Amino acid sequence: MNRFSYTLRKRAAARFFILALFVAAGIFLLTFFSRFGLRSPVLTEISPSVGSAGDILVLRGQNFGSSRGSSYVELCGNRLTESGYVSWDDDLIKVIVPGNTEDGLVYVATRAGKSNPEFFANELAIPVEMPENPMFSVPIITELSLAEAAPGQIISISGRNFGSSRGESNVYFSARREGEREESVPNLDGYDTKVETQKYVGFLTPSEADFDFEYWSENEIRVRVPDGAASGSVFVATSEGRSALQPFLVKSRVGKKTWTGRHTYLIQVGADFHNIKGGDAAAVTIHLPRPIVSALQPEAIMTESNPEPALLDYRGNSIFQITPADKTSAKNYSGARQNYVVTSCGMESEVYKDYVGLFKERDRMLYKAYTRADEIIPADDKAVLELLPKIVFQVKNPYRQAELVFDYFVQNYKILPKTRNGDANPLDLIDKKRGDAYDFAVLYAALLRCAGVPCRILSGVLIDSDKQTRNHWWNEFYIENFGWLPVDTALGAGMEFKAFQGEPNSGKYFFGNIDAQRVAFSFAYKAIKQSLLSNKTVSMPRSFALQSIWEESTADVESYSSYWIVPAVLGIY
Predict the structure, then answer these.
(1) How far is it, in rounded angstroms, from Cα 118 to Cα 472?
(2) Would residue 255 be called left, alpha or beta, if left means φ above 0 and alpha means ψ between -120 and 50 degrees?
(3) What is the separation, in whole angstroms, between the first and last Cα of the chain?
(4) Which residues are paired to 204 by β-bridges?
């Protein structure tokens, strides 16, 4: 002890060290008692928990301290400045939410430490889900029942905003053809294409003629993959817009089709009417056929109509009405003209015969419609029933049956250079062994339908290289899970025509293959009902469209004369 005292007296450094030790101990004890003698702040509630800049934020809890002093509030990562505090009490703090506040945690900090956090959200930054109005929303596809299918198979499209009924809405499938344009048809030689426009070039829609639509509702569409569809995409389009593209594969083990080329024609259809006589109520109605749209004829856009039709498109016809007052000259002349830009495609097929089977979906509307007898196809006639087994024998394969009938026509029937009278019986071909293209197409369809193979007649015009046109008829037959195959028995039997380039195709080429030197106006016979039962009607058998009525005149019409032009090609592109 004496030695310790001596050291303190003699050494200044020792005295300083002892003094510093006592000071440090005092500070430690003061800090310990001041800190742990205080209670940490507890935050129990903030109100509002969702707000925006300028709002008063109330913090409730305990141990905040009676005055703020060096304490503070931390709001979403930022310590509030002096101007942000409204009041401070031990259990209640009020602050102003600053302008830069986003979403984050709220703390109260005192000398005793930080409180537990509470969450604050800026209402302007919260995403708000807008209620959907199905009447004003684009269609959305959520699921396809199949990612891969063959032509003719049904797929279900699930989603929303499809509409309670189809109306003008549609489903679109990719259709890749040689030379497919990437934009709508441009103006051609001064002809205005604004009357109608073609949307979604490079896609095709299910066919009404094939009964492809099975069901349509707000949330589900059931549709068959249309003939001519290709692997690529599928989407739904309504008046509100179109859905996103969904990937979709089209595959058939039956065979494949190859598009061999395309031609675009500017074609005119029309009729002239002279000397219409009758009372004030007299009127003549014209049913002017429109070119069809199909896998082989993907575009048919009206570019000009003179005059404007009463109905633009009714069952594939434009409807015009002419009265005696419609005089454009002293000779009491009137008429109708329409111009169309039509794209026609050639196609070649390769069919793996062993994979062709009997038609299984015999309840399908397509099968029923194209295997029955109708107004022009006598599939149930005795002469047809007797001829069929002599051609196909015991063969059951639909493709082989169609091929055997084609071969029989080429080997046994001669094609006439001119079209026969409209009232001539196509079944004369069986006995006379001679007939025109109409006779060939009708008998071919009758034999295939009799065999249970769906078959139809296409009517239109054949176009020679010199732009001359003539009425023509050919066929398509349907193979399940593959689609339609073209057949032109008249050209196969040697009917003359002028090819655009080189020698024209002939013989067996026209079974399952087709050229692009034609424009079609109807898939099958159309039974048109007359507007009034008292009207007098005019039909035109063996014309470029197959329909029951071409002209109607009211009872007040005394007389008139008419002349229908064969559709004329104004340009080839």
Answers:
(1) 83
(2) left
(3) 123
(4) 173
State the Cα angle at 512 between 344 and 455, rounded to 5°. 90
In SS3 terms, 526-540 reads as ECCCCCCCCCEEECC
Q: Mention every residue, 6+ apart, whose C-beta is less than 8 A from residue 15.
A: 8
Pairing of strands 414-415, 317-322: unpaired
Q: State the Cα angle at 254 between 349 and 350, rounded to 5°.
A: 20
Question: What's this model's pTM, rounded to 2 decimal places?
Answer: 0.74
Q: Name residue, tokens 């399940």.
A: 480
Q: Are 64 and 71 in contact (CB under 8 A)?
A: yes
Measuring CA to CA, which residue among 338, 310, 320 is closest to residue 276?
A: 320
Cα separation values, 265 from 328, 461, 499, 504, 573, Å? 29, 12, 15, 19, 6
In sign, the C-alpha dihedral spanning 549, 554, 555, 557 is negative
Q: At what angle do helices 437-450 and 382-392 cross, to 10 degrees?
A: 80
Residue 559 to residue 242: CA distance in whole angstroms = 51
Give per-residue pLDDT as tens, 434-458. 999 999 999 999 999 999 999 999 9
CA gap 384, 1 in Å, rounded = 141
Q: Please state, in angstroms and as integers, the Cα–Cα distance from residue 156 to each residue in 153, 159, 192, 216, 351, following that order.
A: 10, 10, 39, 10, 28
Instruction: Judge whether 291 and 265 are in contact, CB under 8 Å.
Output: no
Residue position matching structure tokens 């058939």: 252
Strands 104-110, 113-114: pairing kind: antiparallel
Quick one: tokens of 548?
């029951």
> Cα dist. 166→118, 162, 223 in Å?
52, 8, 12
Taking a C-beta distance cutoff of 8 angstroms, is the pair 306, 195 a contact?
no
Are 284 and 321 in contact, with CB atoms under 8 Å apart?
A: yes
- Per residue in 16-38, pLDDT (tens digit) is 566 666 666 656 655 554 444 57
* Residue scoring higher pLDDT (102 or 508): 508
Amino acid identity, position 435: G
Which is it for strands 455-463 and 148-149: parallel, antiparallel or unpaired? Answer: unpaired
Q: 377-419: per-residue pLDDT in tens?
A: 999 999 999 999 999 999 999 999 999 999 999 999 999 989 9
Instruction: List the one residue out of 332, 318, 331, 330 whose CA is nearest residue 285.
Output: 318
Tokens of 205: 């829609």
